[in-house]
Please model this.
Amino acid sequence: MTRAPKSPASPEKVRNEDIARAFDEVAELLDLENDNPFRVRAYRNAARTLRGAREEVADMIARGGDPDDLPGIGKDLAAQIGEMVASGRLSRLDRLRPEVPALALELSHVPGVGPRRAMDLCEGLKPRPRTLDDVLAAGLDGKVRALPGFGALSEQKLVERLQAERRQDKRFKRASVRPYAEALVERLRADPSVEAAEVAGSYRRGKETVGDLDLIAVSETPARVTKNFVAAPNVDHVLAEGRTKASVVLKSGVQVDLRAVARENFGAAMLYFTGSKAHNIALRRLAQQRGLKINEYGVFRGKERLVGADEAEIYRLFDLAYVPPELREDSGEIEAAARGALPRLVRLSDVKGDLHVHTNVSDGANSLSEMVQAARERGLDYIAVTDHSQSMRIAHGLNRERLLAQIDAVDHFNAENPGFKVLKGAEVDILPDGALDLADDLLHRLDLVVAAIHSDFGLPREKQTERILRALDNRFVFILAHPTGRLLFERDAYDIDMARVLRAAHARGSCLEINGQPDRLDINDAYCRMAKSEGVRLSVDSDAHGARDFINLEYAVAQARRGWLEAGDIVNALPVSELKALIAASR
Model:
Protein backbone atom coordinates (compact mmCIF):
# COMPACT_ATOMS: atom_id res chain seq x y z
CA MET A 1 0.00 0.00 0.00
CA THR A 2 1.40 3.38 -0.97
CA ARG A 3 0.73 6.89 0.16
CA ALA A 4 -2.00 8.85 -1.50
CA PRO A 5 -0.72 10.56 -4.63
CA LYS A 6 0.25 14.18 -4.26
CA SER A 7 -2.48 16.70 -4.72
CA PRO A 8 -3.46 17.72 -8.26
CA ALA A 9 -1.39 20.48 -9.74
CA SER A 10 -4.07 22.79 -11.04
CA PRO A 11 -7.15 24.21 -9.32
CA GLU A 12 -9.71 22.87 -11.76
CA LYS A 13 -8.57 19.34 -10.99
CA VAL A 14 -9.28 19.49 -7.24
CA ARG A 15 -12.43 17.67 -6.18
CA ASN A 16 -13.92 17.05 -2.75
CA GLU A 17 -12.52 13.52 -2.76
CA ASP A 18 -9.00 14.86 -3.40
CA ILE A 19 -9.25 17.19 -0.39
CA ALA A 20 -10.82 14.46 1.74
CA ARG A 21 -7.95 12.09 0.90
CA ALA A 22 -5.45 14.78 1.86
CA PHE A 23 -7.26 15.41 5.17
CA ASP A 24 -7.38 11.67 5.86
CA GLU A 25 -3.63 11.48 5.36
CA VAL A 26 -3.06 14.47 7.66
CA ALA A 27 -5.17 12.69 10.31
CA GLU A 28 -3.17 9.49 9.90
CA LEU A 29 0.15 11.29 10.14
CA LEU A 30 -0.96 13.23 13.22
CA ASP A 31 -2.16 9.98 14.77
CA LEU A 32 1.21 8.39 14.09
CA GLU A 33 2.86 11.34 15.85
CA ASN A 34 0.51 10.81 18.81
CA ASP A 35 -0.95 14.28 18.30
CA ASN A 36 -4.05 15.63 20.02
CA PRO A 37 -6.86 13.11 19.29
CA PHE A 38 -9.37 15.93 18.93
CA ARG A 39 -7.29 17.47 16.15
CA VAL A 40 -7.03 14.07 14.46
CA ARG A 41 -10.80 13.64 14.68
CA ALA A 42 -11.39 17.13 13.29
CA TYR A 43 -9.55 16.24 10.08
CA ARG A 44 -11.37 12.91 9.79
CA ASN A 45 -14.73 14.53 10.36
CA ALA A 46 -13.89 17.19 7.77
CA ALA A 47 -13.01 14.48 5.25
CA ARG A 48 -16.32 12.78 5.92
CA THR A 49 -18.18 16.07 5.52
CA LEU A 50 -16.49 16.74 2.18
CA ARG A 51 -17.36 13.29 0.88
CA GLY A 52 -21.00 13.82 1.81
CA ALA A 53 -21.26 17.37 0.46
CA ARG A 54 -23.76 17.90 -2.32
CA GLU A 55 -21.56 20.44 -4.07
CA GLU A 56 -17.91 20.53 -4.99
CA VAL A 57 -16.26 23.05 -2.67
CA ALA A 58 -14.34 24.42 -5.63
CA ASP A 59 -17.70 25.38 -7.16
CA MET A 60 -18.86 26.77 -3.80
CA ILE A 61 -15.80 28.99 -3.54
CA ALA A 62 -16.13 30.06 -7.18
CA ARG A 63 -19.63 31.39 -6.52
CA GLY A 64 -18.48 33.26 -3.42
CA GLY A 65 -19.36 30.68 -0.77
CA ASP A 66 -17.23 29.83 2.24
CA PRO A 67 -16.32 26.24 3.21
CA ASP A 68 -16.72 27.10 6.89
CA ASP A 69 -20.47 27.10 6.25
CA LEU A 70 -20.16 23.30 6.06
CA PRO A 71 -20.83 21.49 9.35
CA GLY A 72 -17.70 20.77 11.36
CA ILE A 73 -15.49 22.97 9.16
CA GLY A 74 -13.98 25.83 11.14
CA LYS A 75 -11.93 28.77 9.93
CA ASP A 76 -8.63 26.89 9.97
CA LEU A 77 -9.88 23.89 7.99
CA ALA A 78 -11.78 26.20 5.64
CA ALA A 79 -8.53 28.05 4.93
CA GLN A 80 -6.79 24.76 4.17
CA ILE A 81 -9.61 23.79 1.82
CA GLY A 82 -9.25 27.14 0.10
CA GLU A 83 -5.50 26.63 -0.19
CA MET A 84 -5.96 23.27 -1.87
CA VAL A 85 -8.62 24.56 -4.25
CA ALA A 86 -6.38 27.49 -5.21
CA SER A 87 -3.04 25.70 -5.47
CA GLY A 88 -3.71 21.99 -5.63
CA ARG A 89 -1.51 21.49 -2.58
CA LEU A 90 -1.87 21.33 1.19
CA SER A 91 1.11 22.87 2.96
CA ARG A 92 0.35 21.16 6.27
CA LEU A 93 0.49 17.78 4.55
CA ASP A 94 3.74 18.72 2.82
CA ARG A 95 5.24 19.60 6.22
CA LEU A 96 4.03 16.42 7.93
CA ARG A 97 5.13 13.88 5.33
CA PRO A 98 8.89 14.19 5.98
CA GLU A 99 8.34 13.95 9.75
CA VAL A 100 6.83 10.44 9.69
CA PRO A 101 8.38 7.40 8.01
CA ALA A 102 6.41 6.51 4.88
CA LEU A 103 6.53 2.89 6.01
CA ALA A 104 4.72 3.77 9.25
CA LEU A 105 1.77 5.05 7.24
CA GLU A 106 1.71 1.88 5.16
CA LEU A 107 1.92 -0.30 8.26
CA SER A 108 -0.90 1.59 9.97
CA HIS A 109 -3.18 0.47 7.12
CA VAL A 110 -2.42 -3.20 7.71
CA PRO A 111 -5.35 -4.72 9.63
CA GLY A 112 -4.58 -5.12 13.31
CA VAL A 113 -1.50 -2.87 13.37
CA GLY A 114 -2.66 0.70 13.99
CA PRO A 115 -0.59 3.88 14.43
CA ARG A 116 1.24 3.13 17.66
CA ARG A 117 2.42 -0.34 16.68
CA ALA A 118 3.36 0.95 13.24
CA MET A 119 5.72 3.47 14.81
CA ASP A 120 7.04 0.87 17.26
CA LEU A 121 7.93 -1.41 14.35
CA CYS A 122 9.59 1.36 12.37
CA GLU A 123 11.62 2.65 15.30
CA GLY A 124 12.27 -0.59 17.16
CA LEU A 125 13.42 -3.03 14.47
CA LYS A 126 17.13 -3.07 13.67
CA PRO A 127 18.22 -2.51 11.00
CA ARG A 128 15.44 0.00 10.52
CA PRO A 129 12.94 -1.39 7.98
CA ARG A 130 12.25 0.54 4.79
CA THR A 131 9.52 -1.60 3.20
CA LEU A 132 6.71 -3.93 4.20
CA ASP A 133 8.90 -6.80 2.98
CA ASP A 134 11.57 -5.74 5.50
CA VAL A 135 9.02 -5.95 8.32
CA LEU A 136 7.79 -9.31 7.02
CA ALA A 137 11.36 -10.62 6.95
CA ALA A 138 11.88 -9.42 10.53
CA GLY A 139 8.72 -11.22 11.58
CA LEU A 140 9.78 -14.43 9.86
CA ASP A 141 13.15 -14.17 11.63
CA GLY A 142 11.46 -13.83 15.02
CA LYS A 143 12.67 -10.26 15.61
CA VAL A 144 9.22 -8.69 16.10
CA ARG A 145 8.37 -10.68 19.21
CA ALA A 146 11.36 -9.13 20.98
CA LEU A 147 9.89 -5.63 20.75
CA PRO A 148 8.00 -4.21 23.78
CA GLY A 149 4.29 -4.86 23.48
CA PHE A 150 4.70 -7.71 21.00
CA GLY A 151 4.91 -11.45 21.48
CA ALA A 152 4.96 -14.68 19.53
CA LEU A 153 1.23 -14.59 18.79
CA SER A 154 1.15 -10.95 17.70
CA GLU A 155 4.22 -11.59 15.55
CA GLN A 156 2.51 -14.55 13.89
CA LYS A 157 -0.61 -12.48 13.14
CA LEU A 158 1.49 -9.66 11.73
CA VAL A 159 3.31 -12.07 9.41
CA GLU A 160 0.03 -13.56 8.20
CA ARG A 161 -1.44 -10.12 7.50
CA LEU A 162 1.65 -8.89 5.69
CA GLN A 163 1.66 -12.04 3.56
CA ALA A 164 -2.00 -11.42 2.76
CA GLU A 165 -1.15 -7.82 1.78
CA ARG A 166 1.42 -9.10 -0.71
CA ARG A 167 -1.15 -11.40 -2.32
CA GLN A 168 -3.80 -8.71 -2.75
CA ASP A 169 -4.12 -6.32 -5.65
CA LYS A 170 -4.66 -2.68 -4.83
CA ARG A 171 -8.32 -2.06 -4.10
CA PHE A 172 -10.36 0.99 -3.16
CA LYS A 173 -13.46 1.49 -1.06
CA ARG A 174 -16.48 1.86 -3.30
CA ALA A 175 -17.46 5.19 -1.76
CA SER A 176 -14.00 6.67 -2.36
CA VAL A 177 -14.13 6.01 -6.11
CA ARG A 178 -17.71 7.16 -6.51
CA PRO A 179 -16.86 10.84 -7.18
CA TYR A 180 -14.45 9.85 -9.94
CA ALA A 181 -16.90 7.42 -11.51
CA GLU A 182 -19.67 10.01 -11.52
CA ALA A 183 -17.41 12.78 -12.86
CA LEU A 184 -16.15 10.63 -15.72
CA VAL A 185 -19.64 9.44 -16.66
CA GLU A 186 -20.83 13.05 -16.58
CA ARG A 187 -17.94 14.03 -18.85
CA LEU A 188 -18.79 11.26 -21.31
CA ARG A 189 -22.49 12.12 -21.36
CA ALA A 190 -21.72 15.76 -22.03
CA ASP A 191 -20.26 14.75 -25.41
CA PRO A 192 -23.06 15.09 -28.03
CA SER A 193 -21.75 12.03 -29.84
CA VAL A 194 -22.37 9.81 -26.79
CA GLU A 195 -25.87 8.29 -26.61
CA ALA A 196 -25.34 6.62 -23.24
CA ALA A 197 -22.60 6.09 -20.68
CA GLU A 198 -22.66 3.82 -17.62
CA VAL A 199 -20.37 2.30 -15.02
CA ALA A 200 -20.02 -1.48 -15.16
CA GLY A 201 -17.72 -3.85 -13.28
CA SER A 202 -17.66 -4.62 -9.58
CA TYR A 203 -18.74 -1.03 -8.89
CA ARG A 204 -22.07 -1.70 -10.59
CA ARG A 205 -22.41 -4.98 -8.70
CA GLY A 206 -22.21 -2.99 -5.46
CA LYS A 207 -19.02 -4.62 -4.22
CA GLU A 208 -17.56 -3.16 -1.02
CA THR A 209 -14.23 -2.53 -2.73
CA VAL A 210 -13.22 -2.19 -6.36
CA GLY A 211 -9.94 -2.81 -8.10
CA ASP A 212 -10.68 -0.52 -11.03
CA LEU A 213 -13.55 1.19 -12.81
CA ASP A 214 -15.12 -0.05 -16.05
CA LEU A 215 -17.05 2.44 -18.19
CA ILE A 216 -19.20 1.71 -21.23
CA ALA A 217 -20.17 4.43 -23.71
CA VAL A 218 -22.42 4.22 -26.77
CA SER A 219 -21.25 6.24 -29.75
CA GLU A 220 -20.99 6.07 -33.53
CA THR A 221 -17.66 7.94 -33.30
CA PRO A 222 -15.75 5.89 -30.71
CA ALA A 223 -12.33 7.40 -31.45
CA ARG A 224 -13.66 10.82 -30.48
CA VAL A 225 -14.98 9.39 -27.21
CA THR A 226 -11.72 7.72 -26.22
CA LYS A 227 -9.75 10.88 -27.06
CA ASN A 228 -12.06 12.96 -24.84
CA PHE A 229 -11.80 10.36 -22.07
CA VAL A 230 -7.99 10.29 -21.85
CA ALA A 231 -7.95 14.11 -21.75
CA ALA A 232 -9.98 14.24 -18.51
CA PRO A 233 -8.32 16.64 -16.03
CA ASN A 234 -7.86 14.11 -13.24
CA VAL A 235 -5.98 11.61 -15.44
CA ASP A 236 -2.43 11.03 -14.23
CA HIS A 237 -1.23 8.91 -17.14
CA VAL A 238 -2.61 6.96 -20.08
CA LEU A 239 -2.02 3.21 -20.17
CA ALA A 240 -3.59 2.61 -23.59
CA GLU A 241 -5.61 4.48 -26.16
CA GLY A 242 -7.27 2.93 -29.19
CA ARG A 243 -10.22 3.60 -31.43
CA THR A 244 -12.79 1.83 -29.23
CA LYS A 245 -11.06 1.42 -25.88
CA ALA A 246 -8.76 3.28 -23.56
CA SER A 247 -7.26 2.81 -20.13
CA VAL A 248 -5.97 5.47 -17.74
CA VAL A 249 -4.77 5.85 -14.17
CA LEU A 250 -6.25 8.75 -12.25
CA LYS A 251 -4.29 10.93 -9.86
CA SER A 252 -6.02 9.08 -7.04
CA GLY A 253 -4.37 5.86 -8.24
CA VAL A 254 -7.59 4.34 -9.59
CA GLN A 255 -7.35 2.65 -12.99
CA VAL A 256 -10.30 3.31 -15.32
CA ASP A 257 -11.02 1.33 -18.48
CA LEU A 258 -13.40 2.61 -21.17
CA ARG A 259 -15.13 0.71 -23.97
CA ALA A 260 -16.95 2.65 -26.68
CA VAL A 261 -19.52 0.44 -28.40
CA ALA A 262 -22.29 0.63 -30.97
CA ARG A 263 -25.90 0.74 -29.80
CA GLU A 264 -26.56 -2.86 -30.87
CA ASN A 265 -23.74 -4.06 -28.60
CA PHE A 266 -24.56 -1.99 -25.50
CA GLY A 267 -26.47 -4.62 -23.50
CA ALA A 268 -23.93 -7.33 -24.22
CA ALA A 269 -21.05 -5.04 -23.27
CA MET A 270 -22.74 -4.03 -20.02
CA LEU A 271 -23.42 -7.66 -19.18
CA TYR A 272 -19.92 -8.84 -20.04
CA PHE A 273 -18.01 -6.05 -18.32
CA THR A 274 -20.27 -6.00 -15.25
CA GLY A 275 -19.38 -9.63 -14.56
CA SER A 276 -18.71 -11.33 -12.34
CA LYS A 277 -16.39 -13.70 -14.16
CA ALA A 278 -18.17 -16.65 -12.56
CA HIS A 279 -21.59 -15.35 -13.65
CA ASN A 280 -20.33 -14.84 -17.20
CA ILE A 281 -18.95 -18.38 -17.30
CA ALA A 282 -22.33 -19.73 -16.19
CA LEU A 283 -24.05 -17.81 -19.03
CA ARG A 284 -21.45 -19.02 -21.51
CA ARG A 285 -22.21 -22.59 -20.43
CA LEU A 286 -25.92 -22.02 -21.11
CA ALA A 287 -25.08 -20.61 -24.52
CA GLN A 288 -22.92 -23.60 -25.41
CA GLN A 289 -25.71 -25.97 -24.42
CA ARG A 290 -27.89 -24.25 -27.03
CA GLY A 291 -25.26 -24.13 -29.72
CA LEU A 292 -24.77 -20.39 -29.24
CA LYS A 293 -21.89 -18.08 -28.42
CA ILE A 294 -22.03 -15.11 -26.03
CA ASN A 295 -19.45 -12.34 -25.77
CA GLU A 296 -19.24 -8.58 -25.28
CA TYR A 297 -20.83 -7.99 -28.68
CA GLY A 298 -23.97 -10.10 -28.28
CA VAL A 299 -25.32 -13.63 -28.51
CA PHE A 300 -24.59 -15.36 -31.82
CA ARG A 301 -25.69 -18.40 -33.77
CA GLY A 302 -22.81 -18.77 -36.11
CA LYS A 303 -22.24 -15.25 -37.50
CA GLU A 304 -25.81 -14.13 -36.89
CA ARG A 305 -26.26 -11.86 -33.86
CA LEU A 306 -29.52 -12.78 -32.13
CA VAL A 307 -29.52 -10.17 -29.34
CA GLY A 308 -27.10 -7.66 -27.86
CA ALA A 309 -28.63 -4.21 -27.44
CA ASP A 310 -30.32 -4.90 -24.10
CA GLU A 311 -29.32 -7.01 -21.09
CA ALA A 312 -32.86 -8.14 -20.35
CA GLU A 313 -33.34 -9.57 -23.84
CA ILE A 314 -30.16 -11.62 -23.41
CA TYR A 315 -31.50 -13.18 -20.23
CA ARG A 316 -34.87 -13.80 -21.93
CA LEU A 317 -33.12 -15.65 -24.75
CA PHE A 318 -31.89 -18.13 -22.14
CA ASP A 319 -35.36 -18.33 -20.49
CA LEU A 320 -34.10 -16.43 -17.46
CA ALA A 321 -35.57 -13.57 -15.51
CA TYR A 322 -33.42 -10.45 -15.51
CA VAL A 323 -30.71 -10.83 -12.87
CA PRO A 324 -29.92 -7.60 -10.99
CA PRO A 325 -26.21 -6.75 -11.11
CA GLU A 326 -25.77 -7.17 -7.34
CA LEU A 327 -26.65 -10.88 -7.61
CA ARG A 328 -24.32 -11.78 -10.47
CA GLU A 329 -21.83 -13.89 -8.52
CA ASP A 330 -22.82 -17.44 -9.62
CA SER A 331 -24.18 -18.08 -6.14
CA GLY A 332 -27.54 -19.52 -7.16
CA GLU A 333 -28.91 -16.59 -9.16
CA ILE A 334 -28.96 -18.47 -12.50
CA GLU A 335 -31.01 -21.30 -11.04
CA ALA A 336 -33.34 -18.87 -9.25
CA ALA A 337 -33.80 -16.86 -12.47
CA ALA A 338 -34.71 -20.05 -14.33
CA ARG A 339 -37.36 -20.88 -11.70
CA GLY A 340 -38.69 -17.33 -11.54
CA ALA A 341 -37.61 -17.29 -7.89
CA LEU A 342 -35.28 -14.29 -7.75
CA PRO A 343 -35.92 -12.02 -4.77
CA ARG A 344 -37.53 -8.65 -5.28
CA LEU A 345 -34.55 -6.80 -3.92
CA VAL A 346 -34.97 -3.97 -1.44
CA ARG A 347 -34.65 -0.49 -2.92
CA LEU A 348 -33.53 2.75 -1.33
CA SER A 349 -37.08 4.06 -1.77
CA ASP A 350 -38.33 1.23 0.47
CA VAL A 351 -36.39 2.57 3.46
CA LYS A 352 -38.63 4.76 5.60
CA GLY A 353 -36.30 5.55 8.47
CA ASP A 354 -32.74 5.44 9.74
CA LEU A 355 -32.16 3.75 13.09
CA HIS A 356 -28.52 4.74 13.71
CA VAL A 357 -28.02 8.50 13.76
CA HIS A 358 -25.69 10.68 15.86
CA THR A 359 -25.97 14.34 16.77
CA ASN A 360 -23.57 16.89 18.22
CA VAL A 361 -24.67 15.82 21.68
CA SER A 362 -22.01 13.11 21.31
CA ASP A 363 -19.61 12.97 18.36
CA GLY A 364 -21.87 14.12 15.53
CA ALA A 365 -21.42 17.36 13.62
CA ASN A 366 -25.03 18.58 13.56
CA SER A 367 -27.90 19.29 15.90
CA LEU A 368 -31.05 17.21 16.18
CA SER A 369 -33.06 19.66 14.09
CA GLU A 370 -30.36 19.74 11.39
CA MET A 371 -30.25 15.95 11.22
CA VAL A 372 -34.03 15.81 10.95
CA GLN A 373 -34.00 18.36 8.14
CA ALA A 374 -31.40 16.32 6.25
CA ALA A 375 -33.41 13.14 6.80
CA ARG A 376 -36.55 14.84 5.48
CA GLU A 377 -34.66 15.93 2.39
CA ARG A 378 -33.68 12.30 1.87
CA GLY A 379 -37.35 11.35 1.92
CA LEU A 380 -37.29 9.61 5.31
CA ASP A 381 -40.28 9.55 7.67
CA TYR A 382 -38.37 8.96 10.91
CA ILE A 383 -34.96 8.56 12.49
CA ALA A 384 -33.67 7.16 15.75
CA VAL A 385 -31.18 9.38 17.57
CA THR A 386 -28.59 6.95 18.91
CA ASP A 387 -25.78 8.96 20.41
CA HIS A 388 -22.98 7.09 22.14
CA SER A 389 -23.23 5.96 25.74
CA GLN A 390 -20.86 6.89 28.53
CA SER A 391 -18.08 4.33 27.91
CA MET A 392 -17.22 6.05 24.62
CA ARG A 393 -15.43 8.96 26.28
CA ILE A 394 -13.51 9.83 23.15
CA ALA A 395 -16.87 10.26 21.40
CA HIS A 396 -18.22 12.40 24.25
CA GLY A 397 -20.58 9.60 25.23
CA LEU A 398 -23.70 10.35 27.29
CA ASN A 399 -23.94 9.51 30.96
CA ARG A 400 -27.26 9.10 32.71
CA GLU A 401 -27.96 12.79 33.23
CA ARG A 402 -27.10 13.81 29.69
CA LEU A 403 -29.15 10.98 28.19
CA LEU A 404 -32.15 11.94 30.31
CA ALA A 405 -31.79 15.49 29.03
CA GLN A 406 -31.69 14.23 25.45
CA ILE A 407 -34.80 12.12 26.04
CA ASP A 408 -36.62 15.26 27.15
CA ALA A 409 -35.28 17.17 24.14
CA VAL A 410 -36.55 14.51 21.72
CA ASP A 411 -39.97 14.47 23.41
CA HIS A 412 -40.13 18.24 23.06
CA PHE A 413 -39.08 18.09 19.42
CA ASN A 414 -41.73 15.49 18.59
CA ALA A 415 -44.40 17.57 20.29
CA GLU A 416 -43.42 20.60 18.23
CA ASN A 417 -42.98 18.70 14.94
CA PRO A 418 -45.83 16.22 14.45
CA GLY A 419 -44.99 15.57 10.77
CA PHE A 420 -41.80 13.65 11.51
CA LYS A 421 -40.98 11.10 14.19
CA VAL A 422 -37.73 10.98 16.15
CA LEU A 423 -37.23 7.81 18.17
CA LYS A 424 -35.39 8.10 21.47
CA GLY A 425 -32.39 5.81 21.25
CA ALA A 426 -28.78 5.24 22.22
CA GLU A 427 -25.82 3.35 20.86
CA VAL A 428 -24.99 1.51 24.05
CA ASP A 429 -21.59 -0.05 24.61
CA ILE A 430 -21.32 -3.78 25.16
CA LEU A 431 -18.71 -4.19 27.88
CA PRO A 432 -16.16 -7.02 27.74
CA ASP A 433 -18.31 -9.25 29.94
CA GLY A 434 -21.43 -8.65 27.81
CA ALA A 435 -23.11 -6.22 30.17
CA LEU A 436 -24.36 -2.90 28.85
CA ASP A 437 -22.94 0.35 30.15
CA LEU A 438 -26.36 1.89 30.92
CA ALA A 439 -28.83 0.61 33.50
CA ASP A 440 -32.09 -1.10 32.51
CA ASP A 441 -34.27 1.54 34.14
CA LEU A 442 -32.73 4.07 31.75
CA LEU A 443 -32.91 1.77 28.72
CA HIS A 444 -36.60 1.28 29.52
CA ARG A 445 -37.20 4.94 28.73
CA LEU A 446 -35.78 4.61 25.24
CA ASP A 447 -37.74 3.67 22.14
CA LEU A 448 -34.75 1.87 20.71
CA VAL A 449 -31.49 0.41 22.01
CA VAL A 450 -28.65 -0.20 19.58
CA ALA A 451 -25.89 -2.25 21.19
CA ALA A 452 -22.33 -2.20 19.89
CA ILE A 453 -18.81 -3.35 20.63
CA HIS A 454 -16.17 -0.61 20.60
CA SER A 455 -13.34 -2.25 22.57
CA ASP A 456 -11.59 -5.56 23.30
CA PHE A 457 -11.84 -6.72 19.70
CA GLY A 458 -9.26 -9.46 20.22
CA LEU A 459 -11.17 -11.65 22.66
CA PRO A 460 -11.11 -15.36 21.78
CA ARG A 461 -14.00 -16.64 19.64
CA GLU A 462 -15.92 -18.25 22.48
CA LYS A 463 -15.63 -15.23 24.81
CA GLN A 464 -16.50 -12.75 22.06
CA THR A 465 -19.53 -14.79 21.06
CA GLU A 466 -20.70 -15.16 24.66
CA ARG A 467 -20.21 -11.43 25.13
CA ILE A 468 -22.64 -10.69 22.28
CA LEU A 469 -25.11 -13.37 23.38
CA ARG A 470 -25.25 -11.89 26.88
CA ALA A 471 -25.90 -8.45 25.41
CA LEU A 472 -28.71 -9.85 23.27
CA ASP A 473 -30.17 -11.40 26.42
CA ASN A 474 -31.01 -7.88 27.58
CA ARG A 475 -34.65 -7.47 26.60
CA PHE A 476 -34.17 -3.83 25.61
CA VAL A 477 -31.57 -4.52 22.92
CA PHE A 478 -33.23 -4.42 19.51
CA ILE A 479 -30.31 -3.94 17.11
CA LEU A 480 -26.76 -5.29 17.18
CA ALA A 481 -24.77 -2.55 15.43
CA HIS A 482 -21.88 -3.20 13.01
CA PRO A 483 -21.94 -6.82 14.19
CA THR A 484 -18.42 -7.95 13.22
CA GLY A 485 -16.55 -4.72 14.00
CA ARG A 486 -14.50 -4.72 10.83
CA LEU A 487 -13.03 -1.61 9.23
CA LEU A 488 -12.15 -2.11 5.58
CA PHE A 489 -8.37 -2.17 5.04
CA GLU A 490 -7.85 -1.25 8.71
CA ARG A 491 -9.24 -3.86 11.09
CA ASP A 492 -10.30 -7.45 10.66
CA ALA A 493 -13.69 -8.61 11.85
CA TYR A 494 -13.53 -9.96 15.35
CA ASP A 495 -13.85 -13.70 15.70
CA ILE A 496 -17.40 -14.77 16.53
CA ASP A 497 -19.70 -17.70 15.85
CA MET A 498 -22.15 -15.87 13.61
CA ALA A 499 -24.50 -18.85 13.38
CA ARG A 500 -24.96 -18.81 17.18
CA VAL A 501 -25.43 -15.04 17.18
CA LEU A 502 -28.11 -15.26 14.50
CA ARG A 503 -29.97 -18.05 16.25
CA ALA A 504 -29.92 -16.03 19.47
CA ALA A 505 -31.13 -12.90 17.67
CA HIS A 506 -34.01 -14.85 16.13
CA ALA A 507 -35.01 -16.34 19.49
CA ARG A 508 -34.96 -12.93 21.18
CA GLY A 509 -36.62 -10.97 18.37
CA SER A 510 -33.52 -8.83 17.84
CA CYS A 511 -32.11 -7.50 14.58
CA LEU A 512 -28.66 -7.17 13.09
CA GLU A 513 -27.50 -4.00 11.41
CA ILE A 514 -26.11 -3.43 7.95
CA ASN A 515 -24.00 -0.39 8.70
CA GLY A 516 -23.58 1.77 5.60
CA GLN A 517 -20.61 3.76 6.85
CA PRO A 518 -18.18 3.28 3.92
CA ASP A 519 -15.35 2.13 6.17
CA ARG A 520 -17.55 -0.55 7.73
CA LEU A 521 -20.22 -1.99 5.39
CA ASP A 522 -20.84 -4.40 8.22
CA ILE A 523 -22.30 -7.03 7.97
CA ASN A 524 -21.12 -8.48 4.67
CA ASP A 525 -23.35 -9.96 1.97
CA ALA A 526 -22.74 -13.58 3.02
CA TYR A 527 -23.93 -12.84 6.55
CA CYS A 528 -26.95 -11.02 5.12
CA ARG A 529 -27.99 -14.21 3.33
CA MET A 530 -27.29 -16.25 6.46
CA ALA A 531 -29.47 -13.90 8.52
CA LYS A 532 -32.30 -14.19 6.01
CA SER A 533 -32.08 -17.97 6.10
CA GLU A 534 -32.31 -17.87 9.92
CA GLY A 535 -35.35 -15.59 9.82
CA VAL A 536 -33.48 -12.66 11.33
CA ARG A 537 -34.47 -9.21 10.15
CA LEU A 538 -31.94 -6.50 9.48
CA SER A 539 -31.75 -2.75 9.75
CA VAL A 540 -30.05 -0.75 6.98
CA ASP A 541 -28.51 2.30 8.63
CA SER A 542 -26.27 5.21 7.76
CA ASP A 543 -24.44 5.55 11.10
CA ALA A 544 -24.70 9.24 10.21
CA HIS A 545 -22.43 11.58 12.15
CA GLY A 546 -23.37 14.57 10.03
CA ALA A 547 -26.26 15.83 7.95
CA ARG A 548 -24.65 14.68 4.71
CA ASP A 549 -23.98 11.14 5.93
CA PHE A 550 -27.45 9.92 5.07
CA ILE A 551 -25.92 9.09 1.69
CA ASN A 552 -24.55 6.05 3.52
CA LEU A 553 -28.01 4.51 3.31
CA GLU A 554 -27.28 3.93 -0.38
CA TYR A 555 -24.26 1.81 0.52
CA ALA A 556 -26.19 -0.11 3.17
CA VAL A 557 -28.96 -0.87 0.68
CA ALA A 558 -26.40 -2.03 -1.90
CA GLN A 559 -25.02 -4.41 0.72
CA ALA A 560 -28.54 -5.65 1.48
CA ARG A 561 -29.21 -6.23 -2.21
CA ARG A 562 -26.01 -8.24 -2.57
CA GLY A 563 -27.31 -10.30 0.34
CA TRP A 564 -30.56 -11.13 -1.53
CA LEU A 565 -32.65 -9.12 0.92
CA GLU A 566 -36.14 -7.85 0.21
CA ALA A 567 -38.07 -5.00 1.81
CA GLY A 568 -39.78 -7.52 4.10
CA ASP A 569 -36.39 -8.43 5.57
CA ILE A 570 -35.67 -4.82 6.58
CA VAL A 571 -37.17 -3.48 9.80
CA ASN A 572 -36.80 0.17 8.85
CA ALA A 573 -38.78 -0.42 5.68
CA LEU A 574 -41.76 -0.56 8.06
CA PRO A 575 -43.88 2.49 8.92
CA VAL A 576 -42.86 3.85 12.30
CA SER A 577 -46.03 2.61 14.02
CA GLU A 578 -45.37 -0.97 12.90
CA LEU A 579 -41.71 -0.68 13.82
CA LYS A 580 -42.56 0.48 17.35
CA ALA A 581 -44.97 -2.44 17.71
CA LEU A 582 -42.22 -4.82 16.62
CA ILE A 583 -39.81 -3.33 19.15
CA ALA A 584 -42.41 -3.55 21.91
CA ALA A 585 -43.08 -7.21 21.08
CA SER A 586 -39.37 -8.01 21.41
CA ARG A 587 -39.15 -6.69 24.97
